[in-house]
Each structure stands twice: as C-alpha cells, then as structure tokens.
Amino acid sequence: MDVVSTLVVAFWAMLPAYVPNNAAVLLGGGRPIDGGRTLGERRVLGDGKTWRGTIVGTAVGVALALGLSELAPTVGDAANVTLPTFPLPVAFALALGAMLGDIGASFLKRRTGRERGAAFPGLDQLDFVVGALALTAVVDPAWFGEWFTWPVLAVVVVLTPLLHIGTNGVAYVLDLKQEPW
Fold first, then answer.
1. Cys staple from 57: which of 20, 27, 28, 153, with CB 3.0 to 4.6 Å?
2. Residues with Cβ < 8 Å from 101, sequence gap 6 or more?
3. How many Cα atoms sit within 13 Å of 93 on the Cβ side?
4. Residue 133 CA to chain centroid, in angstroms?
5. Which residue(s) pair with 16 in the sheet?
C-alpha cells in the first residue's frame, strides 16, 4: 500500500471513531453518567459525560460506518484504493470504543485534579483512539488486523492529534466548546 492509500485507509477506517464525540457535543446533554457521584472529593466523571451524549454519539458513529460501507466500493474505485467496509459489530465497537475512551480519559482527568475542559496533552487527542482500537481488536480481531496494519496505525497516531486540534479549534470559534483543545 502506497503512502496516499495508507492515508486514505487510515482516515476512512477511523471516521466511525472520529465522529461520535463531536456528535455527543452537539446532541448530548442531560443526565450525567456518574449521577453527580464523587470519588473522594472529586466527581467520578463530571457533567460533560452524559447518557444521551454516549448513546447519540455511538448511534451516529454506527450510522456513519454503515453509510461508509455502502459508499466504499464506489469511493474506493474512484480513489483507486480498497476501502474497508464495517460489519455491524465493528461499527459498534469503533463508535462505542471512542466514547468509552473519552469517558475513561474524563475519569483520569478527575483523578489527577483536572476540572472539566482542562487540557491533558496527549490523552485529550488519543483517548478515543485507544478506546476504539482496543474494543474493535477484541470484537473482531481479524477485521482489525486486516485494516489496522502498522503503517495505518502510525498514520492514525500522527493524523488524529492534528485533526483533533483543528476540529476543536473550529468548535471553539463556533462557540460549541468552551476551550480550544
């Protein structure tokens, strides 16, 4: 696989994991997952992690994956690259894994004394990637191994922080986020 194909496959394969947290920001809200509970003197997760956001984010990611599966042959032919399609368990694992990775990061932020929205470089940019990849590897190891080769994983690790910073900057300018990270 050449460099351009690797970039295209990496972006395509990760789209169902890239979108859920954005959907949760736009369409979430409501009751916090932790129900306001604390662990010690700090909230378990905080108000930013809600049931509605998690469910909606996961549903949007799954719907996107299924749509991409329909488009893969046409887009792949036009781009001269074989693109992955997403079986339902993989679609679900990528989307829910992204949400769980972000929830896990929120838990770690609270344990280290960071408030909601506080920066945690590295973790902020890759938490959802780790969650999505880990859950997908467990749910369908064969699919994971076929599409997330070492070169694709390297692109994901480099590309994701750049996309994360860019999209968060746009969300901040549009007043959808209170901080630009």
1. 20
2. 127, 128, 129, 130, 131, 132, 134
3. 18
4. 9
5. none
In terms of residues, how long is the chain?
Answer: 181
Maximum C-alpha span of the chain: 55
- Which pTM does this prediction carry? 0.91
Residues 102-131: tens digit of each pLDDT: 999 989 888 988 877 777 877 778 899 999
Residues 146/77, Cβ–Cβ less than 8 Å:
no
Q: Which two tokens stand for residue 33?
A: 């997952």
Alpha-helix runs per DSSP H in 19-147: 20-27, 51-79, 88-111, 123-139, 141-147
Q: Which residue has the tokens 């469910």?
A: 55
Task: Say which amino acid occupies 84.
Answer: P
Structure tokens at 92: 């679900």
Query: What does each C-alpha distance from 159 to 22, 76, 124, 153 come to in angstroms?
Result: 17, 20, 14, 10
pLDDT tens across 150-179, in order?
Answer: 999 999 999 999 988 888 788 788 887 777
The pair of structure tokens assigned to 56 is 């909606």
Kind and range of the H or E element at 162? helix 150-173
